Amino acid sequence: MLVPGAILYLYFVKRLRFRGSNSLPAKHGYTYRSSYAQMTVEDAWKIHNFLIEYEFPTTFSAATMFALFKAYGIPSISSLLCVTGQFSSKDTVDKRYADTGCLLLESVLNAPASPRAIEALCRINYLHSPHRASGKITDADMLYTLSLFALEPARWVAKYEWRELSGLERCAVGTLWKSLGEALGVAYELLPGSKDGWQDGIDWLDDLDHWSCQYQENQMVPNVSNKKVADATLYHIVWKLPARFKAVGEKIVAAILEDKLREAMM
Description:
The chain is mostly helical.
């Protein structure tokens, strides 16, 4: 019974695994790359939610958490978090992670024009406004943080999942996050392609990827504030583990991090 069962399982996997992704072009009317330029934010949101809720829920969730972690390797970002004390203290980090997660989920999972998405984006802008007005949050740091949320899930899918994102799916990711960045007042003038504009979501995402990698190479350096925020973040990630396994959990997290980020965390 095991052999026929295994064969039957493999047959259905081959037959059904790509059924969802293969249906997207016809379902949304974007069958060629030339048509991607016409993608609406609403369609991009639907395709993005398909990835989050059905195709790669665990990977997208983990990638988003580690995207926040990655932002803390930039001293200009981590130093502000240390000053506010919200993400650098074990007493407050759990609540602030929960607050951040709720606002991000409300912004992304709800329809772009829905009251819940708009209220979440307004709340994020409100929380950022005093720091942006004082110059403590720079345009470059805002763009870099946005790039992590837009790029890290696809990177994790390519690294850990059973397939990479299709061109249509990457276009949806780029289209949606470009729109969210505009709502958050992110300055796209820093991107090389801003002068001529972008053909579609893929074009914007590739431009963002190139800029983000260069920014990270120049700005991600060791700093005491990085370590302080990293220690509090590690505490949050492994807090559910039994005490005897916390050290092992921290080592696993450290192993997942890129070499440059690990070094920046000291």
